[in-house]
């Protein structure tokens, strides 16, 4: 059973704030660092005209899809499969060599090839296929309902938190849970707490274990999303069991089964080269996917919204995607390795368009943005990476006003915390032993599973 709600442009019950005046609109258009918007920056007539132009562009690409696109994604899939097979053979063979230099060289080649395979699997293949970009092919497994990728997060959980929530409520504080991943402060709209002092450290931990953060992300979201649902327990149990089943398969394959097979057939050293190569490739993939995704969402000019306008039109939604995303410039190979998420703006506007077309439509989209005086945020990888880290570092420190606000809120926070402990749901038992040291989201998942 798939765990996907219908992907619709849901309307919010959040009340609309005061509309922007002309002066505020002009101020919002200025290139200030870390901009926040409280309403739509374009008049409805302009956003409707923008939507018409983008719809025409979208239709022109989707109507042109054919055998070349099908051949491309099949080649990507073949590259993932054969590079993984070759890499695992090299890692196992490395343990059989006598020369230390040959062992290191073979291990490095196998680990690099396995890292490449995992990156392609996650980015250009898995991410794009699970967005439904190739559903039109009606392929038996290269479709959004059947494909599952090579990480510990089950596809349905990711599709709920990413395809539905993130792409519908992009960059809206409190609605888009990818804004900081419940861990990192990236905007003034997130109240400062002492733990934000460790923003950089938390970011490093998140980057190293990014697939694990993605895996538990939907569990953390769903605990609150289904809090008042009579089917909460059943839904959370289904999600949690699916998560731990996928973790067991993934960890078992990379860290138990394959090293054990290598050890039984080729010796203990082959088991160690296989295990160490698998662990290193997973970390390399985590660091790469984290860097690409964070550079696409948290640069200096990535706009944050305070709420979802109840009267938001398709044109307003397009504008929000443009303002909340950042592109990364690079070569054709670089774009493939990012899953074409280096064209984050194009992806957020057209998430179900095959990503290999993003580079072709980028000049047309830039021209449309200039026509409507909208910034098209793009830059080299090094520039976007420095801006992203600068943003995270900036919001780790409170302003004078935020510090005073924090101090004044302590009494209220303590009272609310005591109340929350008192009112804790009875179905959540106390966690004892080593389990009490696990993050709360993991304890929740363990309980429901």
From TrEMBL:
Q: Name one GO biological process term.
A: lipid metabolic process
Q: Which InterPro entries does this chain map to?
A: FA_desaturase_dom, Fatty_acid_desaturase
- Annotated Fatty acid desaturase domain ranges read 106-378
One of this protein's Pfam families, by short name?
A: FA_desaturase
GO molecular function, a single term: oxidoreductase activity, acting on paired donors, with oxidation of a pair of donors resulting in the reduction of molecular oxygen to two molecules of water
Return the GO cellular component terms, semicolon-separated: membrane
Q: Which domain of life is it from?
A: Bacteria
Protein name, entry field: Linoleoyl-CoA desaturase
Q: Which organism is it from?
A: Psychrobacter immobilis
């Amino acid at each position: 059973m798939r765990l996907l709600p219908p992907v619709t442009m849901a309307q919010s019950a959040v009340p609309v704030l005061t509309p922007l005046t002309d002066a505020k609109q002009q101020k919002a258009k200025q290139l200030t660092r870390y901009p926040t918007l409280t309403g739509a920056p374009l008049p409805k007539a302009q956003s409707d005209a923008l939507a018409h132009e983008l719809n025409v562009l979208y239709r022109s690409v989707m109507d042109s899809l054919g055998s070349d696109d099908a051949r491309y994604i099949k080649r990507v899939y073949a590259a993932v499969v054969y590079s993984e097979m070759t890499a695992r053979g090299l890692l196992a063979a490395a343990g059989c060599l006598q020369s230390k230099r040959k062992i290191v060289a073979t291990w490095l080649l196998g680990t690099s090839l396995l890292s490449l395979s995992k990156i392609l699997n996650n980015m250009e293949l898995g991410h794009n296929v699970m967005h439904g970009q190739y559903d039109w092919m009606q392929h038996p497994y290269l479709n959004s309902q059947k494909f599952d990728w090579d990480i510990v997060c089950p596809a349905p959980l990711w599709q709920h938190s990413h395809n539905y929530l993130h792409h519908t409520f992009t960059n809206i504080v409190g609605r888009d849970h990818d804004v900081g991943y419940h861990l990192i402060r990236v905007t003034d709209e997130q109240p400062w707490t002492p733990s934000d002092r460790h923003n950089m450290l938390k970011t490093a931990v998140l980057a190293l274990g990014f697939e694990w953060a993605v895996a538990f992300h939907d569990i953390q979201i769903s605990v609150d999303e289904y809090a008042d649902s009579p089917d909460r327990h059943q839904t959370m149990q289904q999600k949690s069991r699916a998560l731990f089943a996928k973790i067991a398969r993934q960890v078992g394959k990379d860290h138990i089964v394959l090293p054990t097979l290598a050890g039984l057939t080729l010796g203990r050293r082959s088991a160690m080269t296989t295990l160490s190569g698998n662990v290193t490739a997973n970390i390399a993939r985590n660091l790469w996917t984290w860097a690409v995704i964070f550079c696409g969402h948290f640069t200096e000019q990535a706009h944050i919204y305070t709420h979802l306008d109840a009267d938001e039109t398709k044109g307003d939604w397009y504008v929000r995607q443009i303002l909340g995303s950042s592109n990364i410039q690079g070569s054709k190979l670089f774009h493939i390795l990012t899953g074409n998420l280096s064209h984050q703006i194009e992806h957020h506007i057209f998430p179900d368009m095959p990503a290999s077309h993003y580079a072709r439509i980028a000049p047309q989209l830039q021209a449309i943005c200039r026509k409507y005086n909208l910034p098209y945020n793009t830059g080299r990888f090094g520039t976007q990476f420095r801006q992203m880290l600068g943003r995270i570092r900036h919001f780790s420190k409170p302003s004078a006003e935020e510090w005073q606000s924090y101090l004044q809120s302590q009494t209220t926070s303590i009272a609310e915390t005591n109340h929350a402990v008192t009112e804790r749901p009875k179905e959540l038992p106390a966690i004892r032993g080593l389990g009490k040291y696990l993050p709360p989201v993991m304890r929740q998942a363990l309980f429901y599973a």
